[in-house]
Amino acid sequence: MSLILTDVSLTYADGDDRVLALDNVTLDVPAGTVTAVVGPSGSGKSSLLAVAATLIAPDSGTVVIDGVATSGLSRARLAELRRRTIGIVFQQSNLVPSLTAVEQLQVMAWIDGRSTREARSRAMSLLESVGMADHADRRPHALSGGQRQRVNIARALMNEPNVLLVDEPTSALDQERGEEIVELVTRLSRERHTATVLVTHDRSLLGAADRVAEVHDGRLSTVPSPPPLTPSLPQ
Hints:
Layout: E1 2-14, E2 17-30, E3 34-38, H1 45-52, E4 60-65, E5 68-69, H2 75-85, E6 86-89, H3 101-111, H4 116-129, H5 145-156, E7 163-167, H6 175-192, E8 195-199, E9 211-216, E10 219-223
Parallel strand pairs: 3-8, 3-9, 6-7, 7-8
Antiparallel strand pairs: 1-2, 1-4, 4-5, 9-10
Helix pairs in contact: 3-4, 3-5, 4-5, 5-6
EC number: 3.6.3.-
InterPro entries: AAA+_ATPase (IPR003593), ABC_transporter-like_ATP-bd (IPR003439), ABC_transporter-like_CS (IPR017871), ABC_transpr_LolD-like (IPR015854), MacB-like_ATP-bd (IPR017911), P-loop_NTPase (IPR027417)
Keywords: ATP-binding, Hydrolase, Nucleotide-binding, Transport
């Protein structure tokens, strides 16, 4: 499965005028690959993620997620598509302060109507995959920034999405922790066969991606990928 945007344009109202956020953007992200998206502030990166996540409908063009064209879908159907097909890793972890790491994941399954026993088993498996199983019963205040981001990633994968959208996951981390998080996202994307879009401001991390795209003034272009990062996580 994959994420495909074709000739997507998006404008925002600005007083009596409209501002162009995306200009005929086409992007094809195959399953099991990571496409990194870079660009200056205000270039359209966030708009691209919002459209891919079906949070905003484009003015024109098509968005196809897991073989489903999103245009014309009802709000309820879009919400179901997001819940079951799209995982989102936010820039800030946004973990619920009162919930433990494992509960952060379990609540996602509860929202989707899955059984409690199955949810805990899957949550623990995901925490193990991101190196957080030993911290399953800790609440966010007892975790480091990198640990919270690992839980954030595991939570995004809880409902087995086919598309993973990752927004600046390293912005609050130092270089070493940032590299670990990007390598983790890359590894999990390949293992779980997700079509992943990774928005980042740090060009030194682009070597982990399969492809790199750059946004300028709402236009998207592919650029040569830098050499791969030297792995620092156990495979």
